[in-house]
Amino acid sequence: MDAAFVIATIIKILIVLGIFSALAGFGTYVERKVLAFMQRRLGPMHVGPYGLLQVLADGIKLFTKEDFIPQGAVRPIFMIAPVITAATAFIAMAAIPMFPEFTIGGYTVKPIISDINVGLLFVLGVMGAGLYGPLLAGMASQNKWSILGAARTAIQFLSYEVVTGLSVLAPVMIVGSLSLIDFNNYQAGGVSDWLVWKQPIAFILFLIAGFAETNRTPFDLLEHEAEVISGYATEYSGMRWGMFFIGEYANMFTLGFLASLIFLGGFNDLWFIPGAIAILMKVFFIFFFFLWTRASWPHVRPDQLMWLCWKVLMPLAVINVVITGIVMMF
Amino acid sequence: MVEAIAFYLFAFLTVAMFTITVMSKNALYAMSALAAGMIFISAFFFLLDADFLGVVQIIVYSGAVMAVYAFGMMFLDTTKDVKEKNPSKKIVFFLSGMVALLLVLIVLSPIVSDKVQALYPISHDIGNAEAVGIVLFTKYLVPFEVAAIMLLVAMIAGIILASKRMDESITLKIDQEIERSKKEQQ
Amino acid sequence: MSGLEQFKDRNVSQNYYKVQIEPYPKTGWEKFKRVLKRSIKLELFVGLKITLMEMLRFNIHTVQYPKEKLPIGPRYRAVHRLLRLLESGTERCIGCGLCEKICISNCIRIDTKVDEHGRKVPTEYTINFGRCIFCGYCAEVCPELAIVHGPDYENASEQRAHFALKEDMLTPLDKLKQQQEYPGFGAPTPVADQRIKKTPLAY
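Output (structure tokens, whole complex):
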């Protein structure tokens, strides 16, 4: 049993690593296509049928590009920063139950690498620690744009971590557990049991904070081209730059899984759709939503970001927690 | 067996990281090593089955060290070595070594005399988070509330300190206005 | 080619419309009201709707360049051509050197000699396309319609020396039959006769 557990865990880790690295690459293709269609363009078309092999071409380019380290940079930290982003994105997935349990040849497989009972906090904490990647990259690059990106990372992380924490607090109070599996089981009774109906404000706040934490468009101040060239990634090239983006796309999928597990019913069967396909649909809708907003909404300024966080979102989150507490008490 | 290996690995890593924090002259190395050490400490909580505390360690200290980074960014050129004034290294090393030794002795003596017992041992009937909650809201309620009030006071003080000239924007002013406001201040 | 003509229409100013911008709020209460109004009107979702509708309508405007090309204007100024006389096949250039003189980026160079018939002919004629700004003065000034701007705009090359030589621009002798009187830049416009006026000096 013990040996089987170790082997099963290793296989699960390899599968998660492989699938999500590939999905991160495929995510860039989907992003380019969706953005192109929304802007009346075609997107990549030339490599492979409908440009499907563009990911491969990009990968070859990234891998064979010179691994350049600027002279004034702090070498070890400059080299380790992208690894932090990519690694934390995958570590965060360790505590996410991706699918319902299933059986292969008499062996029940739990599609979660490590079922710790504080899974939600673990995922959020490790995803938050992933912002050390941009921070260290920006500070080690010896470049003014980079250090501006790093400073923005610091403020964005410190403020939006608060909103994420407070927004999931209300659902945690209702469910009474920090385990994502408990969240899933709580919403087992169909669409009407979804937590998003009980906690709509928490859901919206969580999504907004998720945009800030995954560094996606309305809040992607860390590498806002118009203001700070490429922010923290200005000095990066080749695979080190690629690792930042694998981490970013993996984080988007993590956030998709989190939002669907906490608010949208998780991997429970949805009408006639089996649970595994239902959660995939939810995750891909949230992924699509990320791209959709990127095509539609403009960036915000850093001061608007802080205004939104501290004057709007945080008070709303606190009020939401208080009201939830009062309602639960009576 | 696995736990022993993990313990010694993380013990070595933690000590190494904090050694770098103390010894390094480069602020960026020191802060990064501090952050890494704080995260390695959480491994001990995970080894002791205190998942909740381990995760809280990661969340709290990654945020706290991020604030240290912000200060480092503002006050230092983090890519260069800091020139330290150390008139006599011997005294510094002697004093800090003695303090560290004393701390180790203080912590170690009850363990050696075998008087330490867990007042609230981890029970597997209730989860981690619940156990922490029960302790916080029963035995340690008063210190908990006092700490909460202290944090509230600190928060209000911080807001008041920061908000004195919050509505004025330096970037939107023209030069003459800045000069005028400087004169008004004098 | 047929669907692409709409992009040639540069006369877009008739479709301009002015955006009404409300005055900016001054006091805190007005700002709060604006935030509330924008939140209730769900302005953000208007943007989302527009992009989604564009995606579903799938009205793609991409021109896939190497496969399909936009039509170029009839008097487009691309790589030069040197023409020959249609009957005899000799070069039209009489080596007057006007193009060399008028060239504002100094990229044309002519060497001439007097040949056995007593005609002045260019021995060498080069245009440095790295410097040429395709202003069209050389074609305009040429009295013999010998140098014109052709329609071939795809002149990328690995080396600067390419295209710069007379042999590349001159109509080859065996293709003389295909050479037609060039209507493009350098030739008089079709309505040139109607536009002609007496110079003021004549009266």
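The two ends of chain B are 70 Å apart (CA to CA).
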